[in-house]
């Protein structure tokens, strides 16, 4: 059978499967078997076609649904963190990458602007903050700001502020992604100018060992929140084969999953900033340990583990197809 005829005969069925919701376990299993049958046929006769890739993705989606339904009653909380969220990261790896690139470019813009314009740092960070930091540097304690106030109160305020920034960055994506990019620009320029300001004062090494204790998780989470906002905005701009309203619903759902997944990261970053960063005299090995563990966790959980999990699911789907035939 020619591929065009094969697609024509099954297009409506595949669309029905793609848009189906709240299926019973029996209906879900029946749909999965039908899709794997079509996938096996496509792999046999059109192994490198887009039809085969589409069916493989559809089969993987049904496989995930079956797995989630199986576990949902007993350990829904566990499967969200170990299964659903990592797969959302992998599914939207391109928006996450774009968010990182936007943030990196805006940070560089902030640093260069601070380097070539003496008034830029005060414009971005404010006169009060710059004057206070200059005074702390003169006293030999450049990060004295982190030692002020009650640790728990500082933790609470920072956590609230960070989560508010995250939600704003995500929700602003509804404005065709421009709102999210604007938020990334604000935060990126602020970080870049702050980094250059401390570098110009000759305390870049202390910066890495102090501010980045909490900054590694905090900045990473802001970038990921930017990715969630781009997912939302892109679903409105590029609905693909879906109705625009359905695409936006799916984009909002995936973005919200990412937003929920970021809350523990922001809370951990706020804990570090409120309780740990203030101890600027801590041993070098301890600072490096926190930095390395934080960075390793982000790379593993957002990039490496999702790719491994997706590959495992696709391999399982292929094994099921081969067994069926």
From TrEMBL:
<dbReference type="Pfam" id="PF01944">
    <property type="entry name" value="SpoIIM"/>
</dbReference>
<keyword id="KW-0472">Membrane</keyword>
<dbReference type="InterPro" id="IPR002798">
    <property type="entry name" value="SpoIIM-like"/>
</dbReference>
<feature type="transmembrane region" description="Helical">
    <location>
        <begin position="96"/>
        <end position="114"/>
    </location>
</feature>
<feature type="transmembrane region" description="Helical">
    <location>
        <begin position="163"/>
        <end position="184"/>
    </location>
</feature>
<keyword id="KW-1133">Transmembrane helix</keyword>
<protein>
    <submittedName>
        <fullName>Putative membrane protein SpoIIM required for sporulation</fullName>
    </submittedName>
</protein>
<feature type="transmembrane region" description="Helical">
    <location>
        <begin position="282"/>
        <end position="304"/>
    </location>
</feature>
<feature type="transmembrane region" description="Helical">
    <location>
        <begin position="219"/>
        <end position="238"/>
    </location>
</feature>
<feature type="transmembrane region" description="Helical">
    <location>
        <begin position="258"/>
        <end position="276"/>
    </location>
</feature>
<keyword id="KW-0812">Transmembrane</keyword>
